[in-house]
Amino acid sequence: MPDFIQRRRLARLLDRTAEQFTDRSIPEKGWISTMRLALGMSAEQVALRKGVSRNAVYQAERSEKEGSVSLKQMENLAAAMNGTFVYAIVPNAPIEQLKYQQAIRKARAMASQVSDFAHWSKDEQQDWIDDAAAQQLHDMPADFWEEVVV
Question: Total domain count for the chain?
Fold first, then answer.
């Protein structure tokens, strides 16, 4: 498991990457077909550059739309069209926010195990949850990302 500093560096990398991918819409025809058509290339011309049949290019375009194209196919076709295939997992929110949300869920689940918690004042309950979440974020226990059931 990476240490705290390494996790922070990785989080910053992912956060910066996410900023670049704010518009993640996939073209209606898919990336392969859109790139090919934008270049004015026929499927046969792409096929010749890639060393496959024209039908293989059409099949890759169909497979992409179905979500079953391989990463290697995407990479090879992008290269055949003088492009670069980019593959990424982009977080839906900043990494620290995702971790904080999980810490709060964990803290609320832990609070349900505290006797008389329901009888505490709302301020005391919130303070306890905030402290427990901060402790979870600091310690990052092995079960931190396990599904929380309340």
Answer: 2
Segment among 3-17, 41-55, 126-140 with least mean pLDDT: 3-17
Percent of the chain past pLDDT 70, that is, above it, reads 99
Q: 86-122: b or e for each residue (b if 16 or more CB lie within 10 Å)?
A: eeeeeeeeebeeebbebbbbbbeebbeeeeeeeeeee
The parent domain of residue 46 ranges over 22-80
> Would you state the pLDDT for residue 1?
62
Cα distance between residue 66 and residue 22, in whole Å: 23
Closest CA to 80 of 36, 27, 31: 36
For the chain, give the number of residues: 150
CA-CA distance, 61 to 136, in Å (whole number)?
46
